[in-house]
Amino acid sequence: MAEKYPLVEQREYGRPEKRGGLWRKRVTRGDDELPMVAAHQVRVFRVGEEYVEDHGQLRADDPVVVDASSVTVVDRRIEVPVVVETRIPSAEAGDFTVRAWFHCTVTDPCAVVRDGVTDVEALLLSHLREVPGLTEDGSDLPVVDTAAVRTRIDARLTAYHEMRPSVVSGIRARHGVIEVLTPEEMSAYVAEMERTRRDRERDRQREEMEQEAALDRALREAELELKREEIRSLQAVRKERNRQQEETLRSGYERESGAEQQDYELEIERRRNRFTRAEIEDDIKLIGSDPVAADYLAWRNGDISADELSQRLHQAEERWDSRKDDRLRLDRDYELTRRGLDREDERWQVERDDRRHELTRKEEREETAAEREEKARRWDLEHQDRLRQRIEKREDAKELQRDQHELAKQQLTVRATLGKQAIDRGLFDSTMYDAGAFINSVGDVPYNQTTPQGGGPETPQPELKGEVKGTLRRAPERPASDTGTAADDTDVDDFDPANQEGSLGH
Hints:
With 506 residues, the protein is of the alpha+beta class. The chain contains eight helices and eleven strands. The longest helix has 120 residues, at 306-425.
């Protein structure tokens, strides 16, 4: 039999907490507070005095789960074997050991949880001991005659269960196999069970020791590997640091040596350039921009011959004349170009001023239009506010007028009814009161009309004598005019004289 049957797990719940985001907090329980159930198990929640069965469908935020005070997992397997043992006396010194097998099935999980059925073996053992005559079945037989005792007990239990089945809350227990053991068999069975238990315990201890040794070995290997990794990382860091330092020193030396070599080369080049510039300055001072002097210098240095010098001098003279004409033409073109540019500049300046003035005028016009629109919008808003106030005052006056007229009409109806009842009963026959004056006073219907703006003086309407049988008609309201002012609408309740009677006695 299973170790935990039929209650697999029980949990008590406290007050649920609010869970969720900042804006969507709600009262719920955590998912870890719901026990997991197998395919043959159900959960039973206790909500107050009620027990609710769940097949794993309720979530953590369900009202049943939130309001539950405890939860129990119930095993619903069919025909679960439960072994019960008891002793009965024999005809000799030893006792028979009766081992009964019951096949149990949970039929009502809520009843099992409600009645707290936790030890099925104890309940079935008490039920077995309640069987009448069970202890006398082996008292007349020797210890070795176990077959006869088993037959007697089996027949007795079968008959007893047919007349009175085992009563366990929410569990159906069916009678199964019956075994009767002698003291020697029981001792052997107990010894076998004890040996099996010791073997199981020894195997468990050996497995635990092997697991502990394996875990210790794994931990030591992990620590050793961590230390090796740390040493390798330190060696790599030191090697990288040494390489970086060596690279830094090498790059610094190369940079310094390169800078010194570059300074030396630049100094030599600077001296050469200084000498060349000095020679060029001396030549410029002596020759200047005179090409003739340059030709003579070249003829003297042997770079050109005398004939070539003569040709260059003749060409220089021709170039001078043509250059003079070109200079005059360039001066004239420059003057014309300058005058054209001055005119273009003046025209562009005028156009820019005109454009600036035009933009300024446009901005002023837009600002003026915006101010005009803003004033018009404000005037419209104020006009609409005044119109709305007048309409509200007129509606309030109409409501007040209708209420007053309705009150007067109700008073007239009550007084007319009372007067008619008084006349019918003959209350005026024995008094000196003028019935006609009373009737006329009953027929007075005051009608107060106020101005549409409210708060004006009340204008009394002509008194209407007699019983009012006509219906009140309201004049249709006329729409407001286009200028925003509403027409003077007045609720007029017209009475049809043809429907009036002159006397309440009719």
